[in-house]
Design goal:
The chain is α/β, with parallel strands linked by helices and about 260 residues long. The protein folds into 2 domains: about 10-190, Rossmann fold; about 195-260, rRNA adenine dimethylase, C-terminal domain (Helicase, Ruva Protein, domain 3, Orthogonal Bundle), CATH 1.10.8. Helix 3 (about 65-70) links the parallel strand 3 (about 55) and strand 4 (about 75-80). The longest helix has 12 residues, at about 250-260. The protein has helices at about 15-25, 40-50, 65-70, 90-95, 110-120, 135-140, 150-155, 190-195, 200-210, 215-220, 225-235, 250-260; strands spanning about 10, 30-35, 55, 75-80, 100-105, 125-130, 160-165, 170-175, 180-185. Helix 1 (about 15-25) crosses helix 2 (about 40-50) and helix 11 crosses helix 12. The strands form 2 sheets. It has a 7-stranded mixed β-sheet with strand order 4-3-2-5-6-9-7, sandwiched between helices. It has a two-stranded antiparallel sheet with strand order 1-8.
Amino acid sequence: MPQKPKLGQNFLRDQSAIQRIVAALGDVSQQTVVEIGPGQGAITRMLAERAAHVIAIELDRELAPLLRVQFPAERVTVVEQDVLKFDFAQASAAAGHKLAIAGNLPYYITSPILLTLAESAAALDRAVLMVQREVADRVVAEPGSRDYGLLSVTVQMYGPVERLFTLPPGALSPPPDVHSTVFRWRFAPRFAELGVDERSFLAFARQAFAQKRKTLANNLRAAKYEQSAVQSALEDAGIAAQARAEELSLEVLARLFLQLRK
């Protein structure tokens, strides 16, 4: 019988999917790969064969020692830690290059992990991640689509994302109640390119998307922007008065942000 997970993990069993995840990372023969939530080591095993080194971050106190027994320390470093507290910048500095990331992310903390990776973008090169399908839909969503929102904007401001493939519940053990999607994220932050300050723009995005049913203008007024300033900024940015944040691309949102800052 499969080991019953204690921290909400659903272990990937599909060998073809494991191969596709590792292949999607590309050539990692000269690179350190950080694996988030290695679990019982299914993906770790293939990563260890291909990467220069693997750092496996595992919070489960029972699984971490088992991973250390499975893999030689010179190939795989097992770190028993909450990934939200892991220092990616330090690991990148120690490796001497930007890190590649792989992982079957625990569903219950997917968004916090994505935000942690975003905050560490300067230390990261690319990531191939498996998440709940509905979360992936939001991550890769385009402006004007039903799933486009704050998570889409936040992730995509740190670099392009692409959906790779989707797996049925039976590919994991125990089977979750949902499908899982693998996507690739290449870290190339766009803040400098779009001329916006990182923290200020993300705070603005949270205000713009605060109430999905409200227009952009109403959300901004609720965030204490003066009505005349909002109206003027919308006009100068070429945005319709009744537009919703969900309709606007990153470029247009950045343009509106800069108009409001004037």
